[in-house]
C-alpha cells in the first residue's frame, strides 16, 4: 500500500491542487492528513470541499480544533485569532462539525500519526529536535511515527544506542533495528528558505519512504490572502527566510501546560483499517485504455444493430386511363431522409445510404441514390397503379453512374392480380454500360395479363457509388400510341402545374449536382441507337 502523508494545508488551495496532482502522478493508494487543514490561508471552504472528496483519513490539528470549538482561542496570538474568527465566518456548521470529527492520533500499518507529539496529543506540543522526539517513542510502540505542526521537514532516528539523533530529511528504507520520527513539513505554509510544498510517500510493502517537494503559485496565494482585507504578519504571506539564517520560530500557538485548556470532546485514536475506503480514482492511462475498449465494444454492438429505415411517401392506387407518366417526380428538391411522394424507400443502412430528388438547370427533377457499400441493399417501390385486363404499358428509363460505381442495379415492373394470385414480374432489366450520350437506357412494352390488377415499378440493387435517374416514365398505350386523356377524368396525382412537362426523346441535360453529361443530341437523331462506348 502506498500512502501519501500531507500536513498543514492551511486553506492554501493553490498549494493543495499542485500537491494532489503530484500525488496522482505517483499512483498513491491512500492520502492521510496530519492536521491543520484550515487556518492561516484564505480558502477554507474550497480546501474543505477538496479534502472531503480526496483525502482518506485525518488527524486533528490545533487550528482545526479551535475552528471546531474544541480548543481555547486564547492559546493563539492576535493575528492567528483574527484569522480564526474570519475562518469561522466562512464556514458552515456542517464544515465545523466535520473538522471536529478528526481523531487526535491515527494507527496504521506499522506506523502512527499525530499532529504535534504523542505523549499528550490534545496539547499539540511541538517536536523541535532529537531530544524532544524521545518522549514520543516512549509513548507508542510503532517503529515509524509521522508528525507535522512545525511546518519544517525533519527526520529523527533512534538506534540501538538509545540516543536520538537528527539527520537531514532524506529518502530511506526502514531498518528493523531502528525507529523513526518523520516531520513531513507543510503543504500550505512552508517555512524556512524553501517555500515549496513538502509531503512524504511511504510504501508499506517495501517499507521505503521518500520526500516530495512541489512548487505552486505563491503570488496567486498572496493575492487571495490580501483580498481578505485582514492585516496580518508578513509570515502569513510566505516570505522566504534567507538561506543559512538562524531559524526564527513564530510563536503563533502556545501549547497548554494543563489539561483544562487542551482539546476536549475529541476522539483519541482511530485505526486506519476500520475507516471506510474512499472510492479510488482510476489512473489516467487506465481511463484512456478503458475508453478505447468501451468505444470498440460500442462500435461492435452498433454494427450489429439494425440500421434499416423505411420512408413511406404514401399515395393511393392511381387511375390508369390518363396517358401521363405515372412515375413523374414532384418538381422540387427533396433531401435524403425525407419521403418521396408516391414511393416507398427501403435503406438497409441509413447512415451509409441516401435517396433524394434534385433539379437540373431546366428545373426538371431527377432521382439520385447513394450507397457506400455494396453489401447493403436499396429498394424503391412505387405506389400501386390500377390497370385494365390486357392493357399495354410503356416503361422508359435512363440512368447515369458516378463516383466509381460498382455493383448491380435493376429496374422492374411487377403485376399483382386483384384476386388471390401471387405477384408476377413482367419486366426486369439491369442498368447496363453507359452509351456515348453518358446514359444507360432501359425500355420495354409490357402487355398485362387478361385480369384486373395493379402494377408497381421497382428500383433496387446492391452497389457502391451514386446512380441518377434523369428519366423514369411509365405510361399506358393503345397499339403503341398513348391513350388520349379523358377530359372528364383528370389524373388525381398529376404533377403540379408549375412543374416542367416530361422531356421529349432527346438526351436530358445532366443535373447540376453531378458531373455534366455531353450536350443533348441534335433533333432528329435517336440517342439510344448510338453505339456503346469502347
Write the layout of secondary structure elements.
Elements: E1 2-6, H1 13-25, E2 30-33, H2 44-54, E3 57-58, H3 62-67, H4 78-90, H5 93-100, E4 103-107, E5 111-114, H6 130-139, E6 144-147, E7 153-158, E8 164-167, E9 172-173, E10 179-184, E11 197-203, E12 208-214, H7 218-226, E13 267-271, H8 284-304, E14 309-312, E15 343-347, E16 353-359, E17 365-371, E18 377-382, E19 385-387, E20 392-417, E21 424-430, E22 440-447, E23 453-478, E24 481-482
Parallel strand pairs: 1-2, 2-3, 4-13, 5-6, 6-10
Antiparallel strand pairs: 1-11, 4-5, 7-8, 7-10, 9-12, 11-12, 14-15, 15-18, 16-17, 17-23, 18-23, 19-23, 20-21, 20-22, 20-23, 23-24
Q: Can you walk through the features of this model?
A:
With 534 residues, the chain is an alpha+beta fold. 17% of the residues lie in helices and 30% in strands. It contains eight helices and 24 strands. Strands 14, 15, 16, 17, 18, 19, 20, 21, 22, 23 and 24 form an eleven-stranded antiparallel β-sheet that branches. Strands 8-7-10-6-5-4-13 form a seven-stranded mixed β-sheet. Strands 3-2-1-11-12-9 form a six-stranded mixed β-sheet. The two termini are 78 Å apart.
Amino acid at each position: 500500500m502506498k500512502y501519501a502523508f500531507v500536513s498543514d494545508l492551511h486553506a492554501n488551495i493553490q498549494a493543495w491542487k499542485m500537491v494532489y496532482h503530484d500525488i496522482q502522478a505517483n499512483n498513491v493508494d491512500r492520502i492521510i492528513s496530519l492536521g491543520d487543514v484550515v487556518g492561516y490561508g484564505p480558502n477554507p471552504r474550497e480546501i474543505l470541499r477538496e479534502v472531503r472528496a480526496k483525502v482518506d483519513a485525518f488527524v486533528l490539528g490545533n487550528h482545526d480544533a479551535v475552528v471546531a470549538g474544541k480548543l481555547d482561542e486564547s492559546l493563539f496570538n492576535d493575528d492567528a485569532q483574527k484569522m480564526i474568527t474570519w475562518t469561522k465566518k466562512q464556514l458552515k456548521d456542517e464544515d465545523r462539525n466535520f473538522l471536529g470529527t478528526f481523531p487526535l492520533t491515527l494507527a496504521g500499518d506499522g506506523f502512527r500519526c499525530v499532529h504535534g507529539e504523542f505523549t499528550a496529543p490534545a496539547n499539540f506540543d511541538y517536536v523541535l529536535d532529537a531530544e524532544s522526539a524521545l518522549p514520543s517513542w516512549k509513548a507508542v510502540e510503532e517503529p515509524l511515527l509521522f508528525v507535522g505542526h512545525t511546518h519544517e521537514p525533519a527526520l529523527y532516528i533512534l538506534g540501538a544506542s538509545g540516543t536520538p539523533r537528527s539527520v537531514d530529511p532524506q529518502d530511506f528504507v526502514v531498518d528493523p533495528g531502528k525507529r523513526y520520527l518523520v516531520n513531513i513539513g507543510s503543504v500550505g505554509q512552508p517555512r524556512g528558505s524553501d517555500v515549496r510544498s513538502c509531503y512524504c510517500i511511504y510504501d508499506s510493502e517495501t517499507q521505503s519512504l521518500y520526500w516530495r517537494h512541489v512548487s505552486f503559485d505563491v503570488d496567486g496565494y498572496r493575492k487571495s490572502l490580501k483580498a481578505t482585507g485582514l492585516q496580518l504578519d508578513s509570515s502569513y504571506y510566505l516570505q522566504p527566510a534567507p538561506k543559512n539564517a538562524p531559524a526564527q520560530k513564530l510563536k503563533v500557538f502556545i501549547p497548554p501546560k494543563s489539561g483544562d485548556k487542551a482539546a476536549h470532546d475529541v476522539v483519541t485514536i482511530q485505526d486506519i483499517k476500520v475507516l471506510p475506503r474512499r472510492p479510488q480514482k482510476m489512473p489516467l492511462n487506465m481511463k484512456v485504455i478503458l475508453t478505447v475498449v468501451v468505444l470498440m465494444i460500442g462500435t461492435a454492438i452498433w454494427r450489429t444493430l439494425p440500421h434499416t429505415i423505411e420512408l413511406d411517401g404514401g399515395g393511393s392506387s392511381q387511375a390508369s386511363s390518363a396517358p401521363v407518366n405515372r412515375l413523374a417526380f414532384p418538381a422540387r428538391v427533396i433531401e435524403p431522409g425525407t419521403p418521396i411522394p408516391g414511393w416507398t424507400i427501403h435503406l438497409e443502412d441509413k447512415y451509409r445510404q441516401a435517396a433524394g430528388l434534385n433539379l437540373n438547370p431546366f428545373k426538371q427533377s431527377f432521382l439520385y441514390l447513394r450507397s457506400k457499400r455494396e453489401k447493403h441493399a436499396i429498394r424503391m417501390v412505387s405506389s400501386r397503379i390500377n390497370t385494365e385486363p390486357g392493357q399495354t404499358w410503356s416503361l422508359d428509363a435512363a440512368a447515369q453512374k458516378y463516383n466509381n460505381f460498382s455493383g448491380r442495379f435493376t429496374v422492374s415492373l411487377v403485376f399483382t392480380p386483384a384476386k388471390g394470385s401471387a405477384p408476377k414480374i413482367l419486366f426486369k432489366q439491369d442498368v447496363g454500360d453507359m452509351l456515348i450520350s453518358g446514359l444507360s437506357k432501359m425500355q420495354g412494352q409490357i402487355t398485362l395479363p387478361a385480369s384486373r390488377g395493379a402494377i408497381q415499378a421497382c428500383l433496387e440493387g446492391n452497389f457502391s457509388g451514386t446512380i441518377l435517374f434523369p428519366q423514369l416514365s411509365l405510361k399506358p398505350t393503345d397499339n403503341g400510341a398513348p391513350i388520349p386523356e379523358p377530359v372528364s377524368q383528370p389524373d388525381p396525382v398529376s404533377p403540379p402545374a408549375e412543374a416542367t412537362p416530361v422531356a421529349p426523346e432527346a438526351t436530358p441535360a445532366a443535373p447540376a449536382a453531378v458531373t455534366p453529361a455531353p450536350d443533348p443530341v441534335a433533333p432528329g437523331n435517336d440517342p439510344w441507337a448510338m453505339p456503346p462506348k469502347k
